[in-house]
Amino acid sequence: MIDASSLHFPDFGSGYLTRFAPSPTGYLHLGHAYSALMAWQAADRNPERFILRIDDLDDTRSRPEFEQALIDDLQFLGISWAEVPRRQSQFLERYRQFLQQLIDRDIVYACFLSRKQIENSLSAPHHPPQFAPSTRQAMNETERQDRLEKGEQAIWRLDAMRASELAGRLYWTDFSQNSHLVRPEEFGDVIIGRRDMPGSYHLSVVIDDADSNIELVVRGEDLLGSTPIHRLLQALLDLPSPLYYHHPLVCDIEGNRLAKRNDSLSIRKLRNNGLGQDEIISHLAHILSRNDKKVEKNT
Fold first, then answer.
1. pLDDT value for 121
2. Can you give the pTM of this predicted structure?
3. Which of 178, 238, 184, 163 is closest to 206 using CA atoms?
4. How many distinct helices (H) and strands (E) make up the chain?
5. Which of 151, 248, 249, 283 has a CA-to-CA distance to 222 between 20 and 30 Å?
6. What DSSP assignment string belongs to 97-116?
7. How far apart are CA 247 and CA 257, in angstroms?
8. Pairing of strands 171-173, 155-158
9. Domain spanning 5-89+250-297: which superfamily?
10. CATH says 92-204 is which class?
């Protein structure tokens, strides 16, 4: 069994049902390894308590070879799972059903954006989400329906203020049992779905976590700003809300969050260079220690 004690994970207790949900759009890097190993620890290293989910909604960038590579890399790190990995692409109709609930209740509205803006809605926003202003009044309902009937590609935006009124005062809860107020005025009318792809990142992960009965979501602090959005959707769709743990990010020498373009720090590249399990863990621990020292220096 791999020794990850040098990574100094929190004491998660007897084990939560948790998950790791990578997108097969590139090779996993050390940041992914850190998140996956922490989720594995939160599950008490029990494959029955650990769900692997393949977030493959972005069909323009997802590749079978990347999916197989991430499975190989996770197994190399000593992580295992009992169930067949859940693939988001297999649940589009389920996302569509939940999106239709929001449409029927007039909680979302159609909006017409550029293709690039629409494509970006499928991926996790690895940065604090920018405030999304309302475009509901940009056109009247007659024009909006006319464009939809003509088959124009649209996205569905959450009407944040209406959603807040319906859901009432909400909080999400972190692993330490601290409550955090959901403030829709801080994120605005975020994208919830597309006409041709019913699940944006926000909607799909909320449904997936509920379907898998996830008890604790372990993910990077770059997704901290997404959690209030997810809590609001859980309330609107009458779905359970798990606990959340947002871990520090693994950064490169310049202090930037690792991305899949950081091939030199991909697990695959390190393995090809001859590094074993323990050597990769030691390398990761060294980077985390360096990051901590930088934080201390800047505070």
1. 47
2. 0.89
3. 238
4. 10, 10
5. 283
6. HHHHHHHHTT-EEEE---HH
7. 13
8. unpaired
9. HUPs (3.40.50.620)
10. alpha beta
Among 259, 209, 217, residue whose Cα is nearest residue 39: 217
Contact 45, 81 (CB under 8 A): no
> Each residue of 66-120: pLDDT tens digit?
999 999 999 999 999 999 999 999 999 999 999 999 999 999 999 886 555 544 5
* Tokens 């330490």 sit on residue: 176
pLDDT band of residue 129 (cuts 50, 70, 90) is low
Looking up tokens 């898998």 gives 212
Among 117, 128, 188, residue whose Cα is nearest residue 155 = 117
Please list, in sequence order, all residues whose beta carbon lies within 8 angstroms of the beta carbon of residue 93, skipping any fewer than 6 positions away.
none
The pLDDT, as a whole number, for residue 132 is 82
Give the start-to-end residue ranges of the domains of the chain: 5-89+250-297, 92-204
Give the CA angle between residues 68, 69, 70 to the nearest 5°: 95
> For position 142, what pLDDT does the model report?
86
Of the candidates 243, 114, 260, the one whose C-alpha atom is nearest the C-alpha of residue 191 is 114
Judged by DSSP in three states, 234 sits in: helix
What type of residue sits at position 198?
P
Specify which residues 172 forms β-bridges with: 180
Q: Using CA atoms, how far apart are residues 43 and 61, in angstroms rounded to an integer? A: 30
Residue type, 91: F
User: Is pLDDT above 60 for 214?
Assistant: yes
